[in-house]
């Protein structure tokens, strides 16, 4: 009886160790899966405009530009900032009809961000990537335009804009919209209350894109604004920024912990099973 109790305790201990290992592995797996999903979405987006004719892509771009022009004609004086920018759909399903249109891609090499941009900031859109704040311009570039792109911060398996606070003046980010590529350089960083919208309005003679996320993480009482001013787009600059921040290597290394921990988990399971089988055989031989 005493021996059986010891064996039960040993089994419980080993199961507990496996559970702890699984809990430790979960955030790594979910983050890697989110990265995989995001890249699949971006690949589909790129394939779509690659397969479309130049005329078709131009028509889409003109449609966005026309919406911006009409907005200017209304002499917009306010923008509504959502009260809480960190709601996640409880069912976890990113319904296509709730996602709406995928407008483009935003790349921020400094903080290893490469996200799809959706037309809006509902819970489903912000769960799948970044979104254009309703009431602000599409990021088409052009004098007098001011687009505000928002994304989550502080979600364990979805870093998105969590590291936005690490950006400094002079850092660059890049936008792709219907195949047209734009570049922006950070010229201002500011924290505001959700009721303060003045910094999100268009500025005459300027072409701005502002990146926005909740801050501080977990509290979400304020909004962090990282504004970029338009600069000439050069492919060499993009490649230089990617290389400088080692974006591709970082992305690949996200898989290394999964492989290592996964192998360790398999080995641990095999060892435990062998020990349990050996002990049972030993007990039978004693009987």
Descriptive key words:
alpha+beta; Sortase, Chain: A; eight-stranded mixed beta barrel; 287 residues
Any overview of this molecule?
The chain is of the alpha+beta class and 287 residues long. The protein has an eight-stranded mixed β-barrel. The model has no long low-confidence stretch (mean pLDDT 81). The longest helix has 50 residues, at 2-51. It is elongated. The chain has seven helices and eight strands; from the N terminus they run H-H-H-E-E-H-E-E-E-E-E-E-H-H-H. The chain has one domain: Sortase (Sortase, Chain: A, Beta Barrel), CATH 2.40.260.10. The two termini are 13 Å apart. Helix 1 (2-51) packs antiparallel against helix 7.
Side by side, the strands of the main sheet go: 1-2-3-4-7-8-6-5
Low-confidence stretches: none
**CATH fold-level label:** Sortase, Chain: A
Would you state the CATH class? Mainly Beta
Q: What summary fits the major beta sheet? A: 8 strands, mixed, barrel
CATH architecture: Beta Barrel
Q: What is the gyration radius calculated from CA atoms? A: 25 Å
Tally the beta strands. Answer: 8
How far is the N terminus from the C terminus? 13 Å
Q: Provide the structure class.
A: alpha+beta
Kindly give the count of domains.
1
**What is the percent of helical residues?**
40-55%
Shape: elongated
* Total helical segments: 7
**What pattern of helices and strands is seen along the backbone?**
HHHEEHEEEEEEHHH
Can you give the mean pLDDT?
A: 81
What amount of the residues lies in strands? 15-25%
What name goes with the CATH superfamily? Sortase
Transmembrane segments: 255-273
Keywords: Hydrolase, Membrane, Plasmid, Transmembrane, Transmembrane helix
GO molecular function, one term: hydrolase activity
Region (Disordered): 68-93
């Amino acid at each position: 009886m005493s021996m059986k109790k010891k064996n039960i305790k040993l089994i419980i201990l080993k199961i507990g160790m496996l559970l702890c290992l699984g809990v430790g592995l979960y955030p790594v797996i979910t983050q890697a899966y989110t990265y995989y999903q995001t890249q699949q979405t971006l690949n589909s987006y790129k394939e779509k405009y690659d397969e479309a004719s130049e005329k078709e892509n131009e028509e889409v771009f003109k449609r966005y530009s026309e919406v911006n022009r009409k907005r200017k004609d209304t002499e917009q004086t306010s923008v509504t900032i959502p009260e809480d920018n960190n709601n996640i759909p409880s069912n976890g399903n990113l319904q296509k009809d709730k996602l709406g249109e995928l407008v483009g891609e935003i790349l921020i090499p400094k903080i290893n961000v490469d996200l799809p941009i959706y037309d809006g900031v509902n819970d489903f859109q912000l769960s799948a990537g970044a979104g254009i704040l309703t009431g602000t311009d599409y990021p088409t570039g052009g004098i007098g335009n001011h687009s505000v792109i928002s994304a989550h911060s502080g979600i364990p398996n979805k870093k998105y804009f969590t590291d936005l606070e690490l950006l400094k003046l002079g850092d660059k980010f890049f936008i792709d919209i219907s195949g047209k590529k734009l570049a922006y350089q950070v010229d201002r960083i500011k924290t505001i209350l959700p009721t303060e919208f003045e910094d999100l309005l268009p500025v005459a003679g300027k072409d701005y894109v502002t990146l926005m996320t909740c801050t501080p993480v977990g509290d979400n009482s304020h909004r962090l604004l990282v504004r970029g001013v338009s600069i000439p787009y050069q492919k060499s600059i993009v490649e230089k920024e990617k290389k400088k921040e080692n974006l591709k290597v970082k992305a690949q290394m996200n898989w290394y912990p999964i492989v290592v921990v996964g192998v360790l988990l398999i080995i641990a399971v095999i060892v435990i099973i062998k020990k349990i089988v050996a002990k049972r055989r030993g007990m039978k031989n004693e009987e």
